[in-house]
Amino acid sequence: MKIAKSQAKILFSALDEWNNTGLLDDNTTILLKNDIEILNFDWKKLARYSFWISLICIVIAINAILSDRYLRELLEYIFNAPYLLKFITLSTLSGIIYFVGFKRQQQKPEKIFSNGAILFLGVLTTACAI
């Protein structure tokens, strides 16, 4: 029988309890326990689905930005801004993001993924500034 780990714990404890109370003999308990197979979580499938969902989110976000007139005008203004203004703005923004990321890393070191995501956002803004 292939079941999840949490369900296997319940079954093992039930089999042990039935064995202790005499409802099952030792041989039957061992046979039943040997028949239980714990399924591992499929991380590859989760990664694949997460990738597809992120692509869909990117398409929806780009569609939302391009369908709003104010956001289109804002994007045109940003892309037509002088290079020095873009550099100073993005460099300042990346400095703030790095500061927040490193400060948060010191305060909450157990939050590995969110701290990494904040620092990666800093890397992206640094790349955009260059």
UniProtKB/TrEMBL annotation:
UniProt keyword annotation of Membrane present: yes
Keywords carried by this UniProt record: Membrane, Transmembrane, Transmembrane helix
Residue spans crossing the bilayer: 49-66, 78-100, 112-129
Top-level taxon: Bacteria
Name recorded for this polypeptide: DUF2157 domain-containing protein
